[in-house]
Amino acid sequence: MTQPFLMPEIAKEIHSLSRADIVIGIPSYNNARTIGHVVRAAQAGLNKYYSQYKGIIINSDGGSTDRTREEVLSAQLDDSSLWMLSTPLHPVHKLSFPYHGIPGKGSAFRMIFQIAGQLQAKACAVVDSDLRSITPEWIDLLIRPVLHAHYDFVAPYYHRHKYDGTITNSIVYPLTRALYGLQVRQPIGGDFGLSSRLINRYLARQDWETDVARYGIDIWMTSVAIAEGYRVCQSFLGAKLHDAKDPGADLSAMLQQVVGSVFYLMSEYYPQWSRCNQSQPVDLFGFCYDVGLDPIDVNLDRLLRTFQQACADLGEVWALSLCEETLRMLRTLGGQCSAADRDSFHMEDSLWVRIIYEFATAYQQQPVNRNILLRSLTPLYLARVASFVVETRSLYAPQVEEKIENLCKEFENQKGYLLDLWNARQCRKQDQAGHPLPQDRLPVPDSLKEA
């Protein structure tokens, strides 16, 4: 698959700039309310910490119908309000272009990376467009490890409300850590620093037309960097305050694309993760401190109702992925969703790990049913979130982090189970190669049909 060419108007603008040392990329879609602050923080960071470098801010927009792009180009920074040690040698250019291709964050990143490559940038940072807590220091913390310590990938490390980032805390962080052996706390954090070497590797890959083009981009970037041996670190950015959502709201598309990307890469990187026995800490830069966080309300009743209904509707679909013992435990758990039992609802860590590992192996075995399998994971994820909410209601942040750490250890402890499942399914697949079973698509229950 060849890389798509930049549109003529973009190529012309980039050619006129010739080169840049640092590129800050901001993907967007209808973020007029918040993106002006993000642009000003990025510009202040470049002026304050990298006044000797040529910096460019690039907004890669997905066809916003509000004033997002106008807010980017009109954002102004009063340099007199900053304590500047020196006058910047170069003005910070701000560019805003619509990207082309599959709608999604990954496609936006792809255009940013292409432009960074064309400009021969030494370092690139990407930040979300809905951030309210970004400061100029974020730019320094994402760029400095690349420019001055020769890291290739800088992941964010920040404090979040205990009910923000539930996909990260319940699946992506513990699974990625168990697979590849590095304790990258926010593997889908959204804000990253990147070297030119790693950007070139991303652009050379052939899977940009998958879920990588959408929500799968963050975990794809993190997994490729870790699995292929690039130098990885983290920077503490303080609080992440953004447009957070109730985890019981409709996050199904994000869940499916993120988890699907993890499962997809497991096949490619089996030689790496199958040999990894334990996880290691990752270098962390920045001064860590406690912060106040916005509260997040969770509709526990909706979580449990969805799971209870799924137990009645999805037994046949779950049987494609889950072992009989796991299904039996889920049926038992489904009987604990009544109002009377709500405050004692509990899904054991060991059961949740079994569910994820069994889904991961089924994903490899049944490519024709992958979309159905991933959609059927959503109510199980909601059940896990419900259990987490019940268990952590009265806990403070350090206690919550301890529970997440215990879950991570359970993922690592059960990795032998994953390998046994994986190898057994591979043997079964090879045994069927001469007389393969028909891979008809499973009938899709109404609850799994996409609108």
Describe the protein's architecture and organization.
- With 451 residues, the chain is an alpha/beta fold.
- The chain folds into two domains: 8-285, Spore Coat Polysaccharide Biosynthesis Protein SpsA, Chain A (Alpha-Beta Complex), CATH 3.90.550; 300-435, no CATH class.
- The protein has 17 helices and eight strands.
- It has helices spanning 8-17, 32-49, 68-74, 105-118, 136-149, 166-180, 196-204, 217-227, 252-268, 270-273, 300-313, 315-321, 324-334, 349-365, 370-392, 397-413, 415-431; strands spanning 22-28, 55-61, 93-98, 123-126, 153-159, 192-195, 232-239, 284-285.
- Strands 3-2-1-4-6-5-7-8 form an eight-stranded mixed β-sheet.
- α2 (32-49) links the parallel β1 (22-28) and β2.
- The radius of gyration is 23 Å and the shape is globular.
- It starts with 7 loop residues before the first helix and ends in a 20-residue tail after the last helix.
- Mean pLDDT is 90; it is low at 433-441.
Could you name the CATH class of the largest domain? Alpha Beta
For this structure, what is the CATH homologous superfamily of the largest domain?
Answer: Spore Coat Polysaccharide Biosynthesis Protein SpsA, Chain A
**Whole-number mean pLDDT:** 90
Question: In one word, what is the shape?
Answer: globular
Helix content: 40-55%
The total count of strands amounts to 8
CATH architecture of the largest domain: Alpha-Beta Complex
Category by helix and strand content: alpha/beta
Rg on CA atoms, Å: 23 Å
Pick out the low-confidence regions. Answer: 433-441
What distance separates the N and C termini? 31 Å
The sequence of SSEs as H and E is HEHEHEHEHEHEHHEHHEHHHHHHH
Count, helices = 17
- Approximately what portion of the residues adopt beta-strand conformation? 5-15%
Oligomer designation:
single chain
Remind me, CATH topology of the largest domain?
A: Spore Coat Polysaccharide Biosynthesis Protein SpsA, Chain A
Largest sheet entry = 8 strands, mixed
Structurally, the number of domains stands at 2
Strand arrangement within the widest β-sheet reads 3-2-1-4-6-5-7-8
